User: Which sequence fits this backbone?
């Protein structure tokens, strides 16, 4: 039994930030009831290609949807209709957690806001994810990951430096602002559950992508707040550590990740560059940061003289952190990924076995569970409405004919 097997989550979220958070809870055992609009569903079902191919050769859901929606039951309810909103309120009374990521004020129009639902269920934990939160001058703005990567500062420090080929602000190749918010949201929900268990009280959680992205600037934020200088784009270099970047090799690239002076000395010894280790400009990390261009210019031709695999073998033997730049395919073929079980095969209702990325959480007593593949649209509507709300087949049929479910 998962650690959260006693918890029911009413998931009103879609796209990535909300669904990723609820998938984490589902992997930990929670029952996730995902509410989707009849006939349309989560937008990511159409975020392709690529699309899943069903066993009869038809086009299924986009693989984007598969990434964030396992261990969930799909229930189609149109809550813009009064009867649909009433069903959601009934489900909320029987849930421990509600997660939603609609624009500020949207759900209040249907009586699905925290104040309304908590009046019926004071123990309810209600997590709202928006672009900018529920107050401030931007509270009514829509928030998309790409916009938040820009507005939250990430793109100002990502990409080649001014003057270098291809220099421009650059987004990260994955929607990390969404994912940062998902992780912070899951942590906040778990904290609220502990409080709920101790006091019986629920609470509202106001999560903003903008806030989470600013927090995830980490050392770059404190570089500015304490140091007083706004960081800039450095390409693959590190603002505080040198040499800590990508170098061209004879057949590709090498990541050299030297994090302290002892590692630098070992690198110089292995690479037969002992004179650099003794050079006053490079003895300490601080001096290497001050003389960044000089040390990098000296290292580039040396590292370009050998193949990546040769450097990795030499430097790993000397206990110097380094590594290749893998493609996504190489990641999952890597012996470490295989040993750690980073993929899991699940039986999809329409496509048969589907490989998904496994949860990285490792718990010895309550490990993640893989109970059900990402659902078909509305796959569990009848089961949930009957099992959780006690509706008869006739009542469900009437709701379906009225376009409510």
Assistant:
């Amino acid at each position: 039994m998962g650690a959260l097997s006693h918890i029911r989550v009413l998931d009103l979220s879609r796209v990535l930030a909300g669904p990723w958070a609820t998938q984490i809870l589902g992997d930990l055992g929670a029952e996730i009831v995902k509410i989707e609009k009849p006939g349309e569903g989560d937008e990511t079902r159409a975020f392709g290609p690529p699309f899943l191919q069903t066993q009869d050769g038809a086009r299924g859901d986009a693989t984007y949807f598969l990434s964030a929606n396992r261990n969930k039951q799909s229930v189609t309810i149109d809550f813009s209709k009064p009867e649909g909103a009433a069903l959601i309120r009934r489900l909320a009374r029987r849930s421990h957690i509600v997660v939603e990521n609609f624009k500020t004020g949207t759900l209040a129009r249907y009586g699905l806001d925290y104040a309304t639902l908590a009046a019926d269920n004071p123990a309810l934990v209600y997590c709202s994810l928006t672009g900018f939160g529920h107050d401030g001058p931007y509270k009514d703005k829509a928030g998309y990951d790409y916009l938040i990567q820009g507005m939250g500062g990430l793109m100002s420090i990502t990409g080649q430096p001014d003057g270098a080929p291809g220099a421009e602000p650059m987004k990260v190749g994955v929607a990390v602002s969404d994912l940062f918010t998902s992780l912070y949201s899951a942590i906040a929900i778990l904290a609220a559950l502990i409080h709920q268990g101790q006091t019986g009280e629920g609470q509202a959680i106001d999560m903003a992508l903008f806030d989470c992205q600013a927090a995830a600037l980490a050392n770059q934020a404190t570089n500015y707040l304490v140091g007083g200088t706004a960081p800039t784009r450095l390409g693959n270099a590190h603002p505080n550590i040198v040499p800590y970047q990508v170098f061209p090799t004879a057949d590709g690239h090498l990541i050299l990740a030297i994090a302290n002076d002892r590692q630098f000395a070992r690198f110089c010894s292995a690479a037969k560059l002992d004179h650099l280790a003794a050079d006053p400009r490079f003895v300490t990390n601080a001096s290497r940061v001050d003389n960044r261009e000089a040390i990098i210019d000296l290292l580039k031709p040396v590292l370009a003289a050998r193949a990546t695999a040769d450097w990795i073998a030499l430097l790993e033997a000397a206990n110097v952190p380094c590594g290749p730049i893998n493609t996504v395919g190489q990641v999952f073929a890597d012996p470490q990924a295989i040993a750690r079980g980073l993929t899991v095969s699940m039986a999809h209702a329409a496509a048969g076995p589907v490989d998904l990325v496994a949860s990285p959480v490792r718990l010895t007593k309550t490990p993640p569970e893989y109970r059900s593949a990402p659902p078909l649209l509305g796959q569990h509507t009848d089961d949930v409405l009957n099992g959780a709300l006690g509706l008869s087949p006739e009542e469900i049929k009437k709701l379906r004919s009225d376009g409510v479910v």
User: Anything to note?
Assistant: The CA atoms of residues 2 and 364 lie 11 Å apart. Residues 8-216+338-401 form a domain with the Rossmann fold fold (CATH 3.40.50.10540). The radius of gyration is 25 Å. The chain has two domains: 8-216+338-401, 244-325.
